[in-house]
Amino acid sequence: MERLTESVAPHGPRTPVPCAVVPPHMLERLAAHPDPDIHLPARRSLELDAAHRVRRHTTARTAAPPAAGAAPADTAERTIHDARHSERLPGRKVRSEGGKPVKDAPVNRAYDGLGATFDLYLDVYHRHSVDGAGLPLIGTVHYGEQYDNAFWDGTQMVFGDGDGRVFNDFTVAVDVIGHELTHGVTQYSANLTYHGQSGALNESISDVFGSLVKQHSLGQSADEADWLIGAGLLAPHVNGVALRSMKAPGTAYDDPVLGKDPQPGTMIHYDATTADDGGVHINSGIPNHAFYLVATALGGHAWERAGQIWYDTLTGGQLRPDVDFIGFAAATAATALGRYGDGEEHRAVTAAWAGVGVPTSRSDSTLPRQAAEAARQPERR
Questions:
Q1: Of 337, 302, 305, which is closest to residue 220 (Cα–Cα)?
Q2: What is the number of domains present in the chain?
Q3: Residues 56-109 pLDDT 10s
């Protein structure tokens, strides 16, 4: 468990983790469906995702820390490739930085989404790309056959076309692009372990900044935002609006084929599952909802005060890779106090975490018994 008195920033190379936006529990549900038009793409997608995880672990690829030298440019360096439904990366280059739009809509959406993510991090947080040092942004579209996912592989973005029955093309949601690239930001900063509560925080941070990319690109206030992750990804006949809801975890979809959104919004319903790397895509609903509560309590643009607190916490060097919910909550409260003083920002942060059942101090005895047990045993098997 993370100890507040021993919080130390991880240093050295950053190890990429297997980060895909569609959780395995959704694909596993589809893989069991009797209709081959549904189960075959899901099974292929699960097999590819498993291969990606094995490949990343066995090759042990790492991303080096940003190199010293000239200041990075204030413009993105984007390249989009077309895998032509193969599984070879990066594929054929089809659009480079500054190039005109092409006839292939997924290419243009990927290009624009990479740019929107770059713009948020530079314009708001003065961060130059994923690594803070101007890392070129690479994307590959049309990956695999009916691949039902999108992922960050430690060096680039990869987009599937979806199966057309349950999932649409994965370039349609700019927040998904922001989500996946933020896994890279985490990789180069806090390097959070992709398991249990630290893994759920890894996923939640990507949801937070994915949503902020969308809100920033649309100029939305916290009250105007939909707080959905992946709106537009689900096919029209699916009974659902997105992959996840930060405003109301557990309500994003409820469909006979896809199942019901399992995300909890509070620690009372924390899921101590051993699946999905210890529930990283499930329990992320808890810190997601905490951020939503902070952002809407403060009002205005969520990328400003609320986003700044989360960004400073992520990149400030005080998080252990295995930080748990209590440790992260305490760190955001300390960040808010340090940046803004004992004012509405600090009060909003502490109230939000209390609202989802996570104390901002380990000495807090008000945590419900069930939540305390879950917090003490985030990796229970």
A1: 302
A2: 1
A3: 443 333 444 555 567 899 999 999 999 999 999 999 999 999 999 999 999 999
Q: What is the pLDDT of residue 71?
A: 82
For tokens 């987009």, the residue is: 159
Distance (Å, whole) CA 357 – CA 138:
39
Q: What is the pLDDT of residue 61?
A: 36
Backbone region of residue 247 per phi and psi (left: phi > 0; alpha: psi in -120 to 50; beta: other values)? alpha
In 181-270, the DSSP E strands lie at 228-229, 244-245, 254-255, 259-260
* Residues with a known catalytic role: 180, 281
C-alpha span between 350 and 361 (Å, rounded): 10
User: Considering the domain boundaries, does residue 128 fall inside one?
Assistant: yes
Q: Is residue 136 part of a domain?
A: yes
Distance CA 66, CA 111 (A): 23
CA distance 151 to 145: 15
Q: In sequence order, which residues have a C-beta less than 8 Å from that of residue 16 and are 6 or more positions away?
A: 56, 61, 62, 63, 152, 153, 154, 155, 187
Domain containing 309: what range?
Answer: 4-376
pLDDT digits over 201-228, tens only?
999 999 999 999 999 999 999 999 999 9
**Are 240 and 263 contacting, i.e. CB atoms less than 8 angstroms apart?**
no
Pairing state between β 78-82 and 19-20: unpaired
For residue 164, what is the domain's CATH number? Answer: 1.10.390.10
Q: What is the mean pLDDT of the chain?
A: 89
Q: Is residue 381 part of a domain?
A: no
